[in-house]
Design a protein that fits this description.
Blueprint: H1 24-40, E1 49-53, E2 57-58, E3 70-74, E4 90-91, H2 92-95, E5 101-105, H3 116-124, E6 128-132, E7 143-147, E8 154-156, E9 160-161, E10 166-175, E11 178-187, H4 197-252
Parallel strand pairs: 2-4, 5-6
Antiparallel strand pairs: 1-3, 3-5, 6-7, 7-8, 9-10, 10-11
Length: 260
């Protein structure tokens, strides 16, 4: 295990305040953006990754944390001693890089998602920034994407992130008994959503049921073919027995059956 070249004193940094207050939408949406990746996503070349919700991200010991609703960082892992204070949050100097992508979920107009937060994420080196605004509090767009090259923010229509191997789309459906027309979901390059663990289990169950149905139909077809074959054999046997009885009677009458 690599050892730090210097020890950084973070004792004065606030890594958690236990005062986070979220609404039902944000709480469920955050889980929908984290759990599926751990349950069902296989990055190219088995790259490691870390996706988290409401975890503080620090890029300087002189600045307080910024707390994204969701962030994704590639090629990193949670350390074994993750419960220690110096490992408990996302410190850029510990992981060696900032998150690749940050998502903010808008529920009011006071979160500064399209002003102050863009600047901070750009300054710390985040590559992609996504604002999910399901209630259209900030603009008439539900989803806004930014690339943040060299500390600057540039709006983009890019919805797939090739460096990561994931995209984001709006999805209508039911998640945890809650129906919405505007869930934000991860997807692959073809636009297919990354399922949650429950969805994966349901898909596997449906496939198993379908395979069983097909197997039952095939067995039924095979049984039917065997029944028909048995009936045909029985008819052939009965016909042979009738012919043999007829031949026997004709021989009793002195008729040579070899010419029949």
């Amino acid at each position: 295990m690599l050892q730090p070249l210097i020890d950084i004193d973070i004792s004065q940094l606030i890594t958690e305040d236990d005062e986070s207050v979220d609404n039902f939408l944000t709480e469920k949406q955050e889980r929908l953006l984290t759990e599926p990746l751990y349950s069902c996503w296989k990055p190219h070349n088995n790259r490691s990754f870390l996706v988290a919700a409401n975890v503080g991200v620090f890029n300087s010991i002189y600045l307080s944390a910024i707390v994204p609703d969701v962030f994704l960082s590639m090629d990193v892992e949670i350390p074994d001693d993750w419960w220690e204070k110096e490992k408990r949050s996302y410190f850029n100097w510990e992981f060696g890089k900032p998150p690749n992508l940050v998502i903010e979920i808008v529920s009011n107009k006071v979160g500064e998602e399209n002003t102050k937060k863009i600047t901070r994420y750009a300054q710390m080196g985040v590559t992609y920034y996504v604002i999910f605004d399901p209630y259209k509090k900030l603009s008439d767009k539900i989803l806004t994407f930014y690339v943040l090259p060299f500390g600057r923010s540039t709006p983009t229509n890019q919805t797939f992130f090739p460096e990561i191997g994931l995209g984001l789309i709006i999805w209508e459906g039911e998640f945890e008994n809650t129906v919405s027309k505007s869930w934000l979901r991860w997807c692959n390059e073809q636009g297919q959503i990354i399922p949650s663990g429950i969805e994966k289990a349901e898909i596997q169950s449906q496939r198993a049921d379908e395979e069983k149905r097909r197997a039952d139909e095939e067995k039924q077809r095979t049984d039917e073919e065997k029944r028909r074959a048995d009936e045909e054999k029985q008819r052939a046997d009965e016909e042979k027995q009738r012919a043999e009885r007829l031949a026997a009677k004709l021989r009793e009458l002195g008729i040579d059956t070899s010419y029949l």
